[in-house]
Amino acid sequence: MRLPHSxxxxxxxxxxxxxxxxxxxxxxxxxxxxxxxxxxPGSEATIPDIDAMRERGMDLAVRRAAEGGSLLFGIxxxxxxxxxxxxxxxxLEGGAERARGLGIFDLETTMTxxxxxxxxxxxxxxxxxxxAGERVSGFELHGGKSVLRDADxxxxxxxxxxxxxxxxxxxxxxxxxxxxxYLHGILADPVFRGRIxxxxxxxxxxRVSAPAGSGNASEGAASPVA
Length: 226
What we know:
Elements: H1 13-16, H2 29-32, E1 37-40, H3 46-56, H4 58-68, E2 71-75, H5 77-81, E3 85-87, E4 98-100, E5 107-123, E6 135-148, E7 154-155, E8 170-172, E9 178-181, H6 190-208
């Protein structure tokens, strides 16, 4: 997803370099379709970017993609957008004081003056994506504290996000159809990138082999990663 205040676009270079990945930056609902993966990137102004998404109808396009079988993946500000609400009582980002999120996770984020900007590494908690103990590296670069109220999620890593609040460094829905993380550079890490690409290939194979008339809009489609 291309947002007006997208942050760190170069962190997707390694993903784009994969032989079987077609990476596209999209800001028009008509161009999104139902790709294998929809990435909500980091943002330098989360609430203004949420508002811009709604003005363009990109929030509805993202929901349609998810209903069609796309995996949703949010990084930092994109992760915050996947929550229920983002609050900015001091208007540090120059936008509104609050914005409703996409509601994928029961997560509330409050913007603060404290900024996190540091290398970070994480240890896989195990489960359906990473093997327990696998190490992933990247960096945290964000403001805001997030509080996760939804216990019905999977923690991808053992670590919590830096900066306080009560939020794991990365979470997923139990079917691994949506994921969010505060770890920038996660798709540049070869371990994580390999795991999520394998997960996407398995999801695609299951869609292609689904019975005709199953209602999956993405069945058999040669969709790009967006």
